[in-house]
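re: that chain from earlier
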Amino acid sequence: MEVNRHDQESVKCVVVGDAGTGKSRLVCARAYGHTYSKKQLAARHVPTVFAIDEYRNNRIVQERSNCMVDGVAVKLLIWDTFGDHDKDRRYAYENANAVILCYSTHSRQSYDNCRNKWKPEIRKYCPNVPLVLNATQVDLRYAEQDEVWKSINELNIGIRGHFSNSLNADELLLPEDGRQLAKEIDAAGYYETSMINNYGVNQLFENAVRMALVQRRKLRFWNSQLRQVLKPQAQKPYLLPKRSLPNVSAETSTYWSDIKSTVGNPDYADIQFIVRGTVIYAHNIILCAAWPRFHDLVKAVGIINKYNRTDSDQISLENTITGLKFLYYKKNCQQNSYIRKNLSADHIVFTVDQRITLRAFWKMLEYLYSCQLEKNLERDLLIELHIAADILSLDGLQVILANLADGKPYKNAVITDDARQKFIARMKMLYTSDHFQASIAPDATFEAGDTIIPVNRVLVTCRCDVLAAMFSGSFLESGEQHAKLPGICKDTLLSFLEYLYTDECELKSDFALEVLVLANQFCLSRLVSICESFMAEELREIDNDYDLRNWAVNKNVIHLLRIAEMHNAFNLHACCVAYISNNYLEIQRQHSKFFRESIDYLTQKKIEEERWPPSWYSAELQMYEKEYGKRNQDIDKQSVKKRRQKRRLFNVRH
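^ sequence. v structure.
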């Protein structure tokens, strides 16, 4: 059984307020030392009350109830109550030394009830007891900027009893509202708490004890230990860390569907397959990337390399791949202007083995173009495909067909991923090899400054609708097969083409913004998102490292925000807004004029609403520093007074 010290002061503190304001969690946080996660706090409110018997039955509660306040040993007994207005709390108020009245910062009703309901009841039973006003759940002021709270709110689950409705920033109660209410109800102090990190919990009860002891000192003025009790301390305002910049991810790729859409398309085709008398068009660069043996053959015989051409109009070549016979035409279809415009002047004709059916060869081409084969194919087609793959030595296709035959299509996912990675790697090799000229016969050029870069129209047009219109419509580029891109540097154009050819883009800080602008001009939303992701990551790194931020960087972010808005980079625009909001005071101090002139009114308003720290926090911090300085002066005066009293005591003459 616990034995109290003879000099220990017992303080009974009663906690009241509406249901759902977090009274019981507040009491448990102080009595047990509990901490709560956001998910725990998100549970639907169930009315509970902390049992006073815990002070006799629970060792942890007993130990934590004993505390020291300004050198005074205190036994703190906290009484929890039900928040329903019709409950009888007369017994709880009996012999109370302090009353803590709670309201939620997200509940205007609980705020109004403090004035209309709770103050009359408290003064009825405890007319001379110190009243402390407590604003709970202050973390909800930042809920709109917190991803966890936002996701919980979207699920529309009841959070702490009052979150069943969606969050509304206009309903949040700020510290100035709490201070105004404290004046109206004659509260001795105003404090705020949050269960996220137990902010203000110990400070609330410690100052409630101070108020009770100061009140007790009026009746027991001879008690020496009560004389050293200080006035209640000011509370530093609650501030969450900076919010993280939004995560920006690239859009879903359409690369393989774009490539597959060119199967059998005669536009820009430079290959013809004759399958049982039927002509099927294909494209050399895609087959070279998908079929290594085919690429090796093309390089070996020198069919495409312009330096190895012969002067004859038709050349028969020895077949090096079983099942195919090759013919080379130097001149083709000059009598047809459409074909001359959309087919390469030099192209290859392949005669396919008669054992390969038309539908099997078409399906095989679809596999080569997409590195993927459908799961649900007819049995007869599977047999025909197996024959074609065996004749043409397509090992990857043979493995996929074997898995389908064995009823194990799930194994093909790994094979497809591996084949696509190899396809991209070979395409990148072709892209960086002698500017495409060594083996794959480009049929158009891009001009950037003094640099002319050859390209393959089949790839750039299937990947970009704007380029498709330029090269096929009534534009100048369609006749000349040449496109000028003024104001674009070589590195920017190469990164742009790398994306078209490989669906990847190696960016650098020097020209990432130029690539974004070019991508927007050509309506490539995925490339825009890739650039956004790259620059957002750089912004996040700068935002998290104070040493990386400087005068020039902050000005560049304002400039970047303007460019992002002009070029439909909405995700990057959001990141810039978040960055400026996080560093609002610093940027205002450095570039206030440029900020006002460069950013439109609505964006400025949004930044000011989301600024860190909020304007109300700055005002509260100034008030706290003023109160804290005044308290330190009082402590210094009290210390000087004690020293003088001691000197007078020792200087007394006997």
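The chain has four domains: 9-227, 269-436, 444-610, 624-654.
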